[in-house]
Amino acid sequence: MAEERIFASFAEKRRYEYLKAEKAKKNAPKVRINVDEVARIMARLGEINRTPFVNIEWVNDKGETVPYDVEAAEAFHFTGLANKDFVDFEISDPDGQNMKKGPQSTK
Question: I need a labelling partner for 95 at 20 to 30 A (CA). Which of 13, 27, 38, 102 fits?
């Protein structure tokens, strides 16, 4: 059981917790990020976002067309988000709950 500390004030307790968290961060393993990989990803995302939405066929790793709700796609157009955000907005659900209709459906 951890030793219970008594603090003179709430501010002293917050400072203690902050310093403890900062120490833990310094001791955490470093994450190595390849800047060239980030540049390639950013370039690809830029390419996706410059493509007119109607000219995009969303596919999975197998090259199969990923179905999505056309009405949701039409609503997405008015969000002001970038094309890349459509994946999070509508078709990224791993259980397929958002994939109710194919791209050609009109309801």
Answer: 38
Token duo for residue 1: 């059981």
Please indicate, yes or no, if residue 43 is contained in any of the structural domains: yes
Q: What is the DSSP string of 6-69?
A: --SSHHHHHHHHHHHHHHHHHHSPPPP--HHHHHHHHHHHHHHHHS-GGG---B-TTSPBPP--
What's the whole-model pTM score?
Answer: 0.58
Question: Where in the sequence is the domain holding 86, given as residue range(s)?
Answer: 35-91
Q: Where does residue 52 fall: left (phi above 0), alpha (psi -120 to 50 degrees), or beta otherwise? A: beta
**Does residue 76 form part of some domain?**
yes
In a domain, 30, yes or no: no
What domain count does the chain have?
1
Cβ(89)–Cβ(76) below 8 Å: yes
Residue 6 lies in a domain: no
Spatial distance between the Cα atoms of 103 and 101, rounded to a whole number of angstroms: 7
